[in-house]
Amino acid sequence: MPAKDQGVFEDSYKLIPRVLVFATHEDSILLLKGSSRKRLWANLYNGIGGHIDKGEDILSAALREFYEETALQLENSWLCAIITIDTGEDIGIGMYVFRGGVPSKEFKSSSEGFLEWIPIENIQSLPLVEDLPILVPRIMTMNKTDPPLILHYFYDKNEDLIIRSEDEILEI
Predict the structure, then answer these.
(1) DSSP labels for 26-62?
(2) What is residue 167's predicted lDDT score, i.e. its pLDDT?
(3) What is each CA distance from 58 to 74, 78, 97, 138, in whole angstroms?
(4) For the residues 63-83, what does the mean pLDDT come to?
(5) Does pLDDT of 55 surpass 90?
(6) Domain limits of the chain?
């Protein structure tokens, strides 16, 4: 089918594609504490990720973003979650979440914030980006053969994040 027949219309709902990576080494997970100068997620811990560039597939984007921010090669990576984020606008976010391992805990500094290896059992005690208390435990218990989580994020009238998984609302 030619590109012109793909059904792309100006009034269609659009998603900005992004990737998010959670890397582990032994019993630790690598998280990024956002710089206090960041507009979004300042001083909060998050995975490593960013936007998907034009012409890039989701795995290549995840590997590129991870390497750019850590100088580490992600190994044995797999897709753990596909998240649509309804921003309340005409354009939402399509988030592809990956997990993988790294051969070493040595990383380079990131201009995005401060990288830190955290024991997996300690992450709930950190100031996390608001969805991570729900997302990370699910991802950390997944096996490579498990199907990806399909999640939908949206905001209620008070701007509180709601996470829906299939037919259930997950508590934050």
Answers:
(1) TTEEEEEEE-TT-SSSTT-EE-EEEEPPTT--HHHHH
(2) 74
(3) 14, 11, 9, 21
(4) 96
(5) yes
(6) 15-170
What is the residue whose two structure tokens read 């504490």?
A: 33
DSSP string, the chain: --GGGS---TTS-EEEEEEEEEEEETTEEEEEEE-TT-SSSTT-EE-EEEEPPTT--HHHHHHHHHHHHHS---EEEEEEEEEEE--SSSEEEEEEEEEEE-S-S----BTTEEEEEEEGGGGGGS-B-TTHHHHHHHHHT--TTSPPEEEEEEE-TT--EEEEETTEEEP-
Q: Greater confidence, 23 or 113?
A: 23
Per this entry, what is the length of the chain? Answer: 172
Q: Is the pTM of this model over 0.90?
A: yes
Q: Does domain 15-170 have CATH number 3.90.79.10?
A: yes
The pLDDT of residue 40: 77
Is 3 a residue whose pLDDT tops 80? no
Q: Are 18 and 52 in contact (CB under 8 A)?
A: yes
Give the pLDDT score at 13: 87
Whole-angstrom distance between the N-terminal and C-terminal Cα of the chain? 43
